[in-house]
Specification:
391 residues, alpha/beta, Rossmann fold, Helicase, Ruva Protein, domain 3, 3 domains, 5-stranded parallel sheet, 14% strand
Amino acid sequence: MANILIIDDEKAIRAALRDILEHEKHKVDEAEDGMAGLEKAIKGKFDLVLCDIKMPKMDGLEVLTKLQAHNEELPVVMISGHGTIDTAVDALKKGAFDFIEKPPNISRILVAVRNALDRGNLVQETKVLRQKVGKSKLGSVQMIGESKALEQIREMIEKVAPSDARVLITGGNGAGKEGVARMIHQKSSRADGPYIEVNCAAIPGELIESELFGHMKGSFTSAIKDRKGKFELADGGTLFLDEIGDMALSAQAKVLRALQEGRITPVGGDRDVSVNVRVIAATNKDLKKEIAAGHFREDLFHRLSVIPIHVPSLSERLDDVPLLAEHFISLVCIEQGIPPKKIAEKAIKELQKLPWTGNVRELRNVIERLVILSGKEISEADVKAYAVPHA
């Protein structure tokens, strides 16, 4: 049984849809215009929305857009008596799960509802699974290798983790900076608290402040409800600011204030929120050069780099390649459902000759390719054939 909302200005259509859905044991609620429907959809807990397009006060496409901004995982099936191919395409582009013409055919409605609910269940199951996988990864953080460079990082983590000192992790893409941050959190007194990651390079400059500090309803066009930012979500735990060198200067100033005062102000808000957060930052950039170029605040740099940790590139610790390769082979075989494989000593030596510009992440990808394409044992010939993708 699912909770379904019908938004339609025609009473007869609402009644017909209700009869169909209640016969299938679903719980049904109604709204007679777009404005009332949007309010119900946002306040209530629905598994599916059936929404007309032509309605008073707010048309269905606007309702769809606002619902997508509020909860993009809520499936919405659009219904219209003025259906054209262009209208259907527009609705699907805006995020509708399906489009049905009036008068609605019973079989068509039931198929659309079943598919939409199945998709919603799948989304929820996937989210739960990802959360479990994320927790699993966090609970089993490890640094694979026995090189001197890695041993020095382990020793530094053991000393730094119990404190609340801010840490700045530097190193190339794929070198393992995120793993260092997770290990610091895992070994800290905040290990039972939240661990929140923000990829500063992946968030547009105009959205980074909302992402970090949250926003108040109405503070900008798509802000249809109050939303907590990452600083507030990380309260009592650790906030990992990845690729901090790509953060906009305006956001840098607010991060500096948060670090200095332990308070943040949501976008559009007039009140401060106290936060107790340990900040760990990482970058693949030379921040001193960024400071000289006017792209990064020097005062923020000094606030972040209380404890600097540099993660060396894989090419600087080639002695770790054998252990890393064995580790990734085991992981990939489990993930892919492939019987355990071995790797020849000559294949390892061939791997150690490669430049590894993508560091440990690149090695992991190469091992996955080798596991899938090789025979029972990964050979030197396999490495030569498959380690470097052909153009």
